[in-house]
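Schema walk-through. Below, the input block comes first and the output block second. Nothing else is stored per chain. Lengths vary across the set, and this one has 293 residues.
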Amino acid sequence: MFRKNKLAMIVSEFLGTGLLTIIVLSVKNSQLGLPYFVAAAAGLIVLLLTLALAGISGAIFNPAITIGLWTVRKIKTLQALSYIAVQFLGAAVAWWLFSYLTKVHGIPNSSEYSTRLLVAEALGTFIFAFVWAGAMYQRFGLYAKAIAIGGGLTAGVLAASLVTGAGNLNPAVALGVRSFGWGTTLLGPIIGAIIGYNLYNLLFVKTELAEIAESKDEKAKTSKVNPTLTFSEVANEVEATSKSLDSKTKVASVRKNVAKNTTAKKAAPAKKPVAKKAPAKKSAVKKRNPNAV
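--- output ---
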């Protein structure tokens, strides 16, 4: 049985992928169907959806990006499989809704195998995933992360659009716009995402040897949380750190109270001992009895 937060994550990915597909379909079927406008629209909607849903599911909305995150151990296997399933489902529902509203039943895009199309999709997704990895590993804030991801998608779509029919960078969206191809719009983005994430991880994420080589002063300035940890590991480390801080605070408080009491005792004036009064001595001279002879 799903918990509420897990269900929210799945619904978030379903809605996000569906909305992204609807926007791409709308722009491609309008008078603004040029690659520049498609790229700008896709980047803008991803930016907005990241702001709205990043705190719930991570705002992935892309099966290729999901697989890329899985290869660098940023997402668990079962979670990745559930995300991929609902992402494709969201794109399919978006296509059905679009065709129902507009009576448009197809977009003239070729889904046949083409090496140029495969390379273009891989190149565009590589750019997108590489920028995403930078935002993730450098722990950008929400607004900076949203801008980086939206801008990375726009740049990737523009690079891939050099080849006619390319520029989806998303197998789910490719399915939704009816330009899905197993050897092109599916395989290309997956290859690009895997290379993008793993190359950034290999080149720019600090390794254990690099951490050992740091000086003590540099280590003191860096965060204790390793940027290569998964979300659950980060949460566990934060919890352990907070418990450690609580225990240290309690110990410091006890020591402070003990020191305060000790100082107060030393400062108090010593009490003079009260001398006991000696019992009165009986007179050695006996009183004479007047009746005595």
